[in-house]
Amino acid sequence: MVYSSSFSVLESTLSTPLLSAAASATSTSSTSDSDDSPVNSSRFESQHDKCPFQDIPNGGSYRSLAVLSGHVGSVSCLALCGEFILSASQGKDIIVWQQPDLRQFAKFGQGDGSIKALVTVGNKVFTAHQDSRIRVWKVSRSSENVFRLVATLPTTKDYLGKFMKQSNYVQTRRNHRRLWIEHADSISCLAVYNGLIYSGSWDKTLKVWRVSDLKCLESIKAHDDAINGLIAYKGLIYSASADGKIKVWNKEVKGTHNLKQVLIGHKDVSLNSVIVCEDEKLLVYGGGSDGCIMGWEGENYKLVCEVKAHNMAVLCLCVMGEFVCSGSADKSIGIWKREIGGRLLNVGVIRGHEGPVKCLQASSYNVGGGFLLYSGGLDRSLRVWWVPKEEKTVKKTDTNTPVITEDKY
Fold it and tell me: Where are the annotated segments for Disordered (predicted)?
């Protein structure tokens, strides 16, 4: 692990239901509480008062804080959970990092396919894999392995309840028949909302799973090509696809999901990611394989933004307040500020990765007038950046856009 420079005062502290039990995995307590019982630990609470970095004053330029290594494969996805951040790789491993000191807390994972996406719900972690399965991990108080594999979706119970009935089988693109509860290709993205897990796959389907009993409730033939991105926002589900469309789905009273709107991107351009934010109006942004970011505004989803963000494909997007961050196959991270009407103004470019930037996650830690930005790349590294919230904006040109490179120490 290599640290560069950073901060000493955290202006906010977070708690996590997922990992509150993890701290007592090595405890000598003789209580017989179940794995679901929340556990408080002063060990983790004290970490908020410890920080290995130097001060960052208010304002100033972007900073490279740390380069975290340890993955055996390319870093493919990130998830924040309270004072922890989880990173997963194509090497099938998941690392849990502790904030703010960025120390490695745990490492786990297994499966026959690389990890494409992960989300956290309560005391569980859901991981989506290239082998078309979703694995469920649970924080365990009794096991030395803090994260214990408890299920694989679809579950055996769900499978046995359907495999005898021929009407439960569907034809796949490889001319094989499968149960409708099974994905037929890599699961590329996950989203969670109101007790449901949504999974998008290269098999073009969107499936809905219930968190409480892990049952598959619905399978939707959502797109004409692979689904690359999913996000849930205020009861609506947004799916981005290689067919160049973002589709908006809403849940009906009967529990099924119906198509509400279709947002059309550039012709013959894959949409690789989607994010949603809201000021006075709803804003939806999609990142394309042509390096462009497109934005739609309001309930009518009017196109309000088309910007050439990168020289190569936009692979990921994230949002923090009025800022939008984009990661690209050109190895750079773009920092954008939302203007009135949903337009994006470029305020900086971060360079440092030695490979394409596959995933981004902005932390809600407010530090020195800025926020923390995590980036995972195909160079197998997880990098941490400090992004100032107060920065002079500039027009996007080749000569005056600030370029931020990783500090060398």
Answer: 25-52
At residue 8, the pLDDT reads 31
Which domains does the chain show, CATH number per domain? 61-71+279-409 (2.130.10.10)
**What token pair was written down for 203?**
């098999």
pLDDT score, position 318:
97
Kindly provide the residue ranges of all beta strands, DSSP E only, lying in 252-322, ordered along the sequence. 257-264, 271-278, 282-288, 292-297, 302-308, 314-320
Q: What is the pLDDT of residues 364-394, one digit of tens each?
A: 777 778 899 999 999 999 999 999 987 544 4
Residue ranges, the chain, pLDDT below 70: 1-60, 110-112, 141-145, 173-175, 391-409
Where are the alpha helices (H) located in 203-359, listed in sequence order? none
**Count of other CB atoms within 10 angstroms of residue 321:** 14
108 vs 88: CA distance, rounded Å: 9
Q: What residues contact residue 253 under an 8 Å CB cut-off, 6+ apart?
A: none
